Known about the structure:
By secondary structure, the chain is of the alpha/beta class.
Amino acid sequence: xxxxxxxxxxxxxxxxxxxxxxxxxxxxxxxxxxxxxxxxxxxxxxxxxxxxxxxxxxxxxxxxxxxxxxxxxxxxxxxxxxxxxxxxxxxxxxxxxxxxxxxxxxxxxxxxxxxxxxxxxxxxxxxxxxxxxxxxxxxxxxxxxxxxxxxxxxxxxxxxxxxxxxxxxxxxxxxxxxxxxxxxxxxxxxxxxxxxxxxxxxxxxxxxxxxxxxxxxxxxxxxxxxxxxxxxxxxxxxxxxxxxxxxx
Length: 248
């Protein structure tokens, strides 16, 4: 059913939007649910101290290949932010997150994290009119600013984000973030997002594989905790050297 000129009626768009949201609802729930933090994860004091240094910047990017503990670090920092009373939205990104879907998922994760119903009509806007994502992002940022509470958006597996979503929506989010918003990115590769301006203003922190490698004493603690008396200090040190501190 279309209106004169080929445009769909508001009723039709609303019905399609409802169908789209219902179709994505199970996926959105899973994408916005953080994974379980391993019981054996090491509390690395130096990263707690680093969190104190970077938590007020606009963005922090944790970029390293598989097995370097990016998600573990994000989950540990998530707990620190929650303990401070911050709103923390989690989103696991995938290759299907083209702009409309990415915006919808982001809005859903913020709705879950904040409990604010104001994100619902913005999600409807994305679901019914997929060419208005920037408008929805502007309203999203304004809503975060109005919260007056520290708000964190965590995007895991960010390297899977399609270029169109990264270059347009994510870049827009980063360059227009209000003072109470922090974006934490976990990625296996450098993102297709211009960050020179953020870096120049000191608003971007970057952690890479070299930063995430275990120190020798951390390797020893992990191995001793796991194997107890079955492994000696010499063997722990040797394993640390062979793996070059690769956390996994």
